[in-house]
């Protein structure tokens, strides 16, 4: 009996599965190391930064001015109801600008998951999201992405969260573990759920990390003028696709 137990074969695991596991583990380790190094750099930079009293006054005034402008935008601008918009999918991008933001503006950007410059997220065109985007208009640009750009963004730059750890979308196994209960089990399902704004869009969009975009040849600026008046911020409509082709 003991000999039979000793000769039992171990469960067979495909070499490709083992390789994927190893790659995912290595990527997670490197990612943790990068984050630790980034935190260390931030602490070091914070120690060396010395501000004059007039700098604090200027920052405070700028923040208050931005807040007043935000309230004015929401009061003056008449927003289209979400039902009147044909496209239901938005892609919003945080554009370069001042780092000294009013806490209320910073809070709205955090709700949109646009805390870093040149990152983008998929959003459902709800009245709440349209109001948030209008409130932080000078700090973002957004529009309606086509299927081609949705696919390319997810395939090229897509990363997801699982067990509070980010990972590249190279493993359908991890996608299934994260979203399988919602019927999303592979990369193609992720693209379909996002592009069609499906019933589990919210869970799928939250699973995707904000997309890190590359800097265009002509750097985007936080101009006071919206895109329709020659600036870079605000609603671009379908024109967002031209920008995405440069940033992806």
Automatic annotation (TrEMBL):
Keywords: Ribonucleoprotein, Ribosomal protein. Residues 23-48 are annotated as: Disordered. Residues 90-140 form the Large ribosomal subunit protein uL30-like ferredoxin-like fold domain. Residues 32-45 have a biased composition (Basic residues). This is Ribosomal protein L30 ferredoxin-like fold domain-containing protein. GO terms for molecular function: RNA binding; structural constituent of ribosome. Residues 13-74 form the Large ribosomal subunit protein uL30 N-terminal eukaryotes domain. Pfam families: Ribosomal_L30 (PF00327), Ribosomal_L30_N (PF08079). One of its GO terms (biological process) is maturation of LSU-rRNA from tricistronic rRNA transcript (SSU-rRNA, 5.8S rRNA, LSU-rRNA). GO terms for cellular component: cytosolic large ribosomal subunit. Gene3D superfamilies: Ribosomal protein L30, ferredoxin-like fold domain.
């Amino acid at each position: 009996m003991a000999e039979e137990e000793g000769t039992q074969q171990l469960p067979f695991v495909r070499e490709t599965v083992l390789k994927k596991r190893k790659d995912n583990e290595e990527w997670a380790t490197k990612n943790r190391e990068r984050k630790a190094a980034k935190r260390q750099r931030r602490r070091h930079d914070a120690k060396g930064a010395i501000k004059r009293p007039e700098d604090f006054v200027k920052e405070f005034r700028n923040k208050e001015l931005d807040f007043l402008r935000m309230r004015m935008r929401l009061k003056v601008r008449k927003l289209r109801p979400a039902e009147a918009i044909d496209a239901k999918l938005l892609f919003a991008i945080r554009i370069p600008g001042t780092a000294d933001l009013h806490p209320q503006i910073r809070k709205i950007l955090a709700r949109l998951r646009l805390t870093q410059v040149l990152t983008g997220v998929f959003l459902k065109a709800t009245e709440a999201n349209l109001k948030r985007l209008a409130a932080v208009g000078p700090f973002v640009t957004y529009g309606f992405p086509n299927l081609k750009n949705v696919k390319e963004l997810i395939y090229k730059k897509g990363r997801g969260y699982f067990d509070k750890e980010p990972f590249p979308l190279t493993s359908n196994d991890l996608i299934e573990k994260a979203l399988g209960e919602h019927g999303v089990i592979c990369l193609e399902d992720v693209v379909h759920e996002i592009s069609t704004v499906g019933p589990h869009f919210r869970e799928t969009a939250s699973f995707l990390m904000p997309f890190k975009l590359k800097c265009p040849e002509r750097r985007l600026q936080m101009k006071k003028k919206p895109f329709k008046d020659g600036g870079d911020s605000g609603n671009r409509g379908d024109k967002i696709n031209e920008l995405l082709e440069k940033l992806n």
